[in-house]
Amino acid sequence: MNPWRQKMPLEWQRYVNNEVKVVADEKRQYQGWVYTVDPVSASIVLVNPQEDGRAHVTVVMGHAVEKVELLQDGGEEIAQRLSSLFSPDGVQTVSREELQSKKGCLRAWLEKNRIPVTEEGEALCVAGVLRINPPYGSADCISSNEIILSRVQSLVESNPGIQG
Amino acid sequence: MKTPVSVLRLPRGPDPNSRGFDPNSARFLALCPTTVSASSAADAHGVALRDEQRARSLLRERFLRSLLAMCGRPVRFSMYEKVQVEAKFGASDIDVLNFQVSDLQTPIGVQKEALLRCPDIITYNFEI
Q1: Is the pLDDT of residue B34 over 90?
Q2: Which of B52, B58, B60 sits opposite A8 (nearest CB)?
Q3: Separation between Cα atoms, residue A93 and residue B77, nearest integer Å
Q4: For the whole model, what pTM was predicted?
Q5: To the nearest whole angstrom, how far is the Cα of B120 from the nearest Cα of chain A?
Q6: Which of the two residues, A40 and A162, has the higher pLDDT score?
Q7: How many C-alpha atoms does B76 have within 13 Å on its Cβ side?
Q8: What is the pLDDT of residues A62-110, one digit of tens each?
Q9: Which residues of chain A lie closer than 8 angstroms to B65, CB-CB?
Q10: I need a surface site. Which of A45, A61, A64, B76 has the fewest CB within 10 A?
Q11: DSSP β-bridge partners for residue A123
Q12: How confident is the model at residue B94 (pLDDT cuts 50, 70, 90)?
């Protein structure tokens, strides 16, 4: 087994979001930004973004890796770009500020409807029996009480949103 | 559009260990010995082990997403002995030892369904 495959996950993780040059078997060389290193096969997923928003992805199988050279550290921007490239459609990453404002808006709406609500960390706790987790949609309500659950869910869905 | 031709395939017996993830299976021991074991240094401290497991699951989740992004797309495989083939990616097994592909373009024709052995592959690439 080659040295690359014998590394630990924490060592592999240090390459993520950075630009590397990989030398593989049969004298091949590949360069790109590391999206991930598979801990099972040690395969390196390299991404080369293109101008039109698409990207070219090359994966070097772990058993074929001879040498990995770190070229430059990536930043927040490339990390975001890589994550969003592989996110499935329909799933959006919501920023912390948006989550906070959504939580505040929902809490205000529930209080307006005379529902007792407290905050428990990131979640909203309704009447001590129902939890609303981020991102505070009707599908994020958790309770063992069906009646309260359906009432709160319809309230969440009818939330007119952030006022002016 | 190339006409599919029948390609001779060698028969494979059934896998006696249907759960390929069984660490005692002959296949697992032969092909991927130590991928699942945690580092020995991490055994001493729960925190280090937790960090390692967190790194492992993060890396694996991203890899699974990359596999998902590949599904149904044309992928070019560079294999040993300068073999280059293109096929539509279908699925991978859990140990990343086999890739199921469709419409595999080979020098002797287009194979409608095929299984590629990952140890034969050096790299593969695709566009997203």
Answers
A1: no
A2: B52
A3: 32
A4: 0.65
A5: 9
A6: A40
A7: 10
A8: 999 999 999 999 889 899 889 888 886 655 667 788 888 888 899 999 9
A9: 86-88
A10: B76
A11: A120
A12: confident
Q: What's the topology of domain A3-85?
A: SH3 type barrels. (2.30.30)
For residues B32 and B29, what is the distance between their CA atoms, to the nearest angstrom? 6
Best mutation target, A61, A63, A81, A85, to test chain B (most B CBs within 10 A): A61
Mark residue B103 as left, alpha or beta (left: phi above 0; alpha: psi -120 to 50; beta: remaining). left
Alpha carbon of A59 to those of A45, B29, B36, B108: distances in Å? 4, 24, 21, 26
Q: What's the CA gap between B104 and B89, in Å, rounded? A: 9
By the 8 A CB rule, do B86 and B105 touch? yes
Cα gap A94→A77, rounded to integer Å: 16
Q: Please report the beta strands in B1-128, taking only residues with DSSP state E, as ranges in sequence order.
A: 74-79, 83-92, 98-106, 109-117, 121-127
Q: Which two tokens stand for residue B74?
A: 């044309």
Residue given tokens 């002959």 in the structure block: B26
